[in-house]
Amino acid sequence: MSGRDDGEEKDGVAGYMQRAKKQAMENAEHVAEGVAAGTMSEGKLFDVATTIGDKRLDDLTVEDTTCGYCAVGCRFDLYSDGEEVLAARPADEEDAPVNGISTCVKGKFSYGFVNSDDRLTSPLVRDDDGEFRTATWDEALSRVAAGLGGIKEEHGGEALSVIASSKATNEENYLMGKFARQVLGTNSVDNCNRLCHSSTVAGLAKTFGYGAASVSMGDIEETDCYLITGSNTTEAHPVIGTRIKQNVRDGADLLVFDPREVQIAEHATQYSRVKPGYDAVWINGITRYIVNNDLQDEEFLEERTTGFEPEEEPEHDSADDRDQRTEDRDAGREAVKQAVQEFTPERVEEITGVPPEEIASAAETIAAADTCVFGWTLGLTEHSHGTENVMAMANLAAVTGNLGKPGAGVSPFRGQNNVQGGGGDMGPLPDNFPGYQDIGKDEVRAKFEKAWNCDISPEYGYYTTQMFLNDDVRGMYIIGENAALSEPGVNHAGEVLEDLDFLVVQDLFVNETAEYADVVLPACSFVEKTGTFTNTDRRVQMVKQVMEPKGDSRPDWKILQDLAGRMGREWEYDSTAEIMEEVNSLTPIYGGVTHDRIEEEGGLQWPCWDEDHPGTERLYEDEFDTDDGKAHLQAVGFSEPAETPDDEYPFSLTTGRVLYQYHTGTMTHREEGIMEYTPSDFVEIHPETAEEYGIRAGDRVEIESRRGEITVPAQVTDRVAPDNLFVPIHFAESAVNQLTDEEHLDPEAATPEFKVSAVRIRRVDDGDDGDTDALSTATREAGTGDD
To answer: What gap in Å lies between CA 465 and CA 468, rounded to an integer?
Structure first.
């Protein structure tokens, strides 16, 4: 905007005069301000400032909206002059039920990506020479319709897949699932949830019925006790972290179990360092201590659960009955009380490194508390046995009776702004329609076939991770997901993308995935459209357009509608409110969620069965979402990571997030202020390990797994154990997923094992003392553990 007059910057003498006039006006304003300050009273100055401020605000667009970063669901007012986001300011507390006046650094300041110089504002198509060129929407959409339609005609819809976007609205994700099934004829539609919390969904669904948090933010703020694991809460979910710290200062207990001493552990009543990949072991150890010392909630277990006590065997039964019981036990479905007995204190310490006294202390703290919230993120789920980890945690919550009452429950903190709603509730999944309705059930499938006027196969499609392992997928439509960086074994992911017959990418930028595309379609950011997001405690909230779309970019729902029309399906939605009405009619848990109600009531938590239902603050107060209304506890045995350290690769590498970055950096890397704090990747190394390998803070270190290698600067810190390393996930330049394993997936949820990779390290000797400038001052100070 600098140097502009009437919207156009002039050249030559005219430009000089234009700039001089602008400077004179600015100087005049400063002079006038000085005169006013010297002659007017403070009260008069305040009145003048208020009048001028109100006049300037009249020229701005102000909308209350929901944050587009993590899934805490913070709400605030965004101010725009039509060209850019100028400010994010707290909304009224009643309009911001989750965060009140709080925001994190990203939600407050990080909007530079909207106007970034490399923002995609026109469609791109790849010519025969392999280069992209700008195209009209008509040409680009015709190319997409021909490319996807040709594969469908020749190989069937099963040869196509769609990766939906947890950044997009609920309404848009609903259409992504509908587009896959109705227009393309495939059930192979999935999203980033597969790479993070799908094991949470699977584990909680099997035990309690809903694959979501049972609590509200109020429960998190008021509980007597927390057990948090695999969550760098203060950096990944800062507003939740603040709420927890405030409650701990007021007397709540905080138990943190994690391989890395994350920031939230600094506030813990008890921090226990655990060996990566063995979470079910220490959780089962706590459960064993509780049941063996009669600390369990017997009334809750008897009245509201099954699967805790072993079933009594009848005195007289047939050989077939005995064989069936044996088969059930072999499948891991024996009673929890019996299954945890193998996890003695001595065995738990041998496997996980947690001393018996810490297991006992944690168990007694949870049992003594009136209420407890069990919180986790990807450190618990991104394993080849992540579903088992979640079921072990669900068992512990039930055994202690911490479900269905104020201040108690399970709370998987979700990472992307709409991964709960768009990534799960809206059904862009290979096995579920919206509302977690199983596509394999004839009556459910018939309902959607009638509504969408199409035939739908009862066979489940491919999960995201499976799409990259099956040669029969010939075409992909990837929306708002950077699979080239986020998939495990990214070298393999790149090869798959390169070999596709046709790839269309729909995004804000030409990211690493778009480099492989045949067509790239420019989408809108969340500040340029209207719809809804669903946050981590199931709260559906409004997202409002505060700016016009940049260039020729379009909202995802409008792109999908136009493309569906070109492929033979006429959609006639005039707004996202109309799309939500269709969601209401087909999705029982969203039956009463409408845009009008959300506006009036400030958000609604599902299940919300109809327009007279108030929504559900807390799940399972009366019964669980199971056939018999009881929690079905699932016995969990011993599992270990698919890959463990050995003499050749002696370290366990784990990955995660840092406060000043977000996911693969698509948004935060375009924010200059943010990049001052964490401008590059790094590896955390324990001081003992650093000394052994001759590594100092800032030295470049090569990390190698069986799948690849990266080179990053070192942070020397005792946040990690001597045999562990930590690397963030946010940087394309180093792409830590070159090191992770794409083959060993959770058998229930197909989640990859991001959190444990066997690696080796060496200092890179490039003839100097190491690239100390590769780390910012803030990062170096946080990461040097030399003391």
So the answer is: 6
